[in-house]
Amino acid sequence: MKKYRCQICGQVVEVNEGESCPVCGADFEMLVPIEEDEEK
Ligand SMILES: [Zn+2]
């Protein structure tokens, strides 16, 4: 799984590609991939 930041709820989530946000249920296309070593 990769880390993504959800543009809807703002949470950083780990999902498989194509899955929706586990926090708010937003579509995968609303999730922005983030770098592993960038934790801001
Ligand atoms: Zn979300």
In words, what does this structure look like?
The chain has 40 residues and is mostly beta strands. It contains no helices and 3 strands. It has a 3-stranded antiparallel sheet with strand order 2-1-3, with no helix packed on it. The protein is globular and about 25 Å long. The mean pLDDT is 92. Zinc ion is lined by residues 6, 8-9, 11, 21, 23-24, 26.
What's a quick, concise take on this entry?
The chain contains no helices and 3 strands. The chain has strands spanning about 1-5, 10-15, 30-35.
List the helices and strands and how they pair.
Elements (H helix, E strand, L loop, with lengths): L1 E5 L5 E4 L15 E3 L7
The structure holds zinc ion.
- Per DSSP, the total helix count is 0
Oligomeric nature of the chains? single chain
Query: What number is the mean pLDDT?
Result: 92
Q: What's the gyration radius in Å?
A: 9 Å
Q: What structural category do the secondary elements indicate? A: mainly beta
| CATH fold call | Rubrerythrin, domain 2
| Anisotropy-based shape | globular
Number of domains: 1
Q: What is the helical fraction, as a range of percent?
A: under 10%
Number of strands: 3
| Largest beta sheet: strand ordering | 2-1-3
Give the distinct bound molecules. Answer: zinc ion
Q: Could you state the order of secondary-structure elements as H and E?
A: EEE
The biggest sheet amounts to: 3 strands, antiparallel
What CATH architecture label applies?
Answer: Single Sheet
Through-space gap between termini: 19 Å
Q: Assess the beta-strand content as a share of residues.
A: 25-35%
- CATH top-level class: Mainly Beta
Low-confidence stretches: none
